[in-house]
Amino acid sequence: MRVNSIDVNNKPSFGVKIDGRLATDLCSEIYGRKLAKYIPAYVQQFEKLKTAGLDTSELYIARDNKFDTFMLKNSSITTAYKKPLVKAEKGKLFEAWFKITPEDIQKAESMLQEVIDEKRNGLIDMAKNSVVRLMLYTKNNEKDVTKAVQKMDDDSVIDLYYRAKDLTKQDR
To answer: Is residue 52 exposed (0-12), middle (13-18) or buried (19+ Cβ within 10 Å)?
Structure first.
């Protein structure tokens, strides 16, 4: 078994999960557009991206009326945020697939971590306000602000972060 060392959170990685629906859609487009000669390139890209990030990350497609967007999520970092990687016009999924790089995946993972860390650190900083501090204490039965924030799941952190931000604005 090959382990890829990735500097994101200093954790070793076994690779990104690639949603089965994404692979099915790409293969359907390959055969529908008679692009079978590009299957080796598709497989090579698949293998390259699969080993690019943390094993808790997942690459999938989000759809709207105009575009299909390759997205990255990692529920071990945060369930509140996902990171768009590349947009594809309808019917051009295959071309967009090759625009994704391993570095894009690593940057997306780092960005997700930075966003949730920003909220946690911001909440800790806003705990200088006695009302915010009391909110944290009552939320976790914890008298240490840092421990209280670390015990919270990311959805609670984000919710309390924005509530605390509104409270601290009123103090100004």
So the answer is: buried
